[in-house]
Structures are given as structure tokens and as C-alpha cells.
Amino acid sequence: MNFGDVPVTIPGATLRLGAKDFTLAPTPLGCMDVAEIVMKGVKESGWAEYNKALQTVIYAGLKRNHPDITPEFVADNIDFANYQDVLNAFMVANKFIKSEVQSSGEASASQ
What we know:
Layout lengths: L12 E5 L2 E5 L7 H9 L1 H4 L1 H19 L5 H7 L5 H11 L13 E2 L3
Parallel strand pairs: 1-3
Antiparallel strand pairs: 1-2
Helix pairs in contact: 1-3, 3-5
């Protein structure tokens, strides 16, 4: 599948999954109940619930700019090596934390 060729319309944070960069848009309000689990953290939510919630909000944010992306692609491309970058992208895209702006004007969460 080729997810990376859709023009970006909603600003957000750059997130690298697999070998491609995607723009993670802010989490839609329809996912705020799930985003709350992410905001509570692993200690309060438990690993399984937290992991599923993070995958859900990342998928929802990516789908806004990359409509062909699938939940399976997201789940298969979040791993221990990039978990912190994924969480940072979520925090930057939703303006919970600030990130430096790249010359292209897109915020990068992998700093």
C-alpha cells in the first residue's frame, strides 16, 4: 500500500512509520475518550489499554491526512524502538507540548 502520497491538508507533527514520514493531525474530538486514556499514562491505565488507546488516536490523527492508511498498518509499525517518537508526535500534534518548527513549516516530534 502506498500511504504517503496524499497531499497534507491539516497541520500536525511529522511521524515516521515504516520507511515513510506521515503528518499526524490533531486527534478528532470523537476520540477524546480514548485520548484521555493516553493522557493518564501506563501506570493508571495499564499497558494493554494504554497501547490500544495510543494506536487508536494515532490512527485517527493519521487518517485525517492519509485516508488510505489502515489500523493494521499503524499497529504493525509502532514498536518499542519508535514508541517514544509516536507518543511525542501525539503530544505535539495536539499542542500538549511544543516542538521546533522545521524549515518546511511542519512540526517534528522526533526531537
